[in-house]
Amino acid sequence: MAHEHKLEIFRGLVKFKSNTQKIWGVLIFLTIVTVVEVALGIFKPEALMAQFLGMKILNWIFIILTLVKAYYITWDFMHMRDEVKALRRMVVWTAIFLILYLLFILLQEGGYIESIYTSGYVKRDF
User: Fold this and answer.
1) Helix (H, G, I), strand (E, B), or coil: what is residue 17?
2) Is 125 contained in some domain?
3) What is the tally of structural domains in the chain?
4) Is residue 2 part of a domain?
5) Which one of 3, 68, 99, 109 has the minimum C-beta count within 10 Å?
6) Which domain holds residue 112?
């Protein structure tokens, strides 16, 4: 007997009758998130240009929306919702921690290079 996949998204708030409808629903959700990202990238509202934790709020929004899309693609298209809870946590949380660690490293190194250039002391060309 084939394994039946759950035909709902958003923790059961939206239910579908077939897998095809569910795929279209997920595609529409991901498209809306992408359109929001592109619109913010084009218009760049001044209210979101303030600094927060060393970066512009707009950049934080981009990072969060990208993580939402990555999580949702993993959750629905890789069928993580149908797996055992321990496997889901292991895959998703490992990826999230690795992304946050990479983000931390990039911010630290970027801040160091920016401070070198602004202080006028350049020992070698980066």
Assistant:
1) coil
2) no
3) 1
4) no
5) 3
6) 8-119
The owner of tokens 């801040």 is 111
Does the predicted TM-score (pTM) go above 0.70? Answer: no
CA nearest neighbour of 94 among 68, 69, 71: 71
Rounded-to-integer distance, Cα 40 and Cα 35, Å: 8
| pLDDT tens figures, 71-118 | 888 887 787 877 888 988 888 789 889 989 998 999 889 888 888 888
123: which residues sit within 8 A by CB, 6+ positions away?
A: 116
Q: What percent of the chain has pLDDT over 90?
A: 34
Q: What is the DSSP letter of 15?
A: E
Residue 1: pLDDT band (50, 70, 90) is very low
Residue pair 5/26 in contact (Cβ under 8 Å)? The answer is no
| Structure tokens, 104 | 């931390």
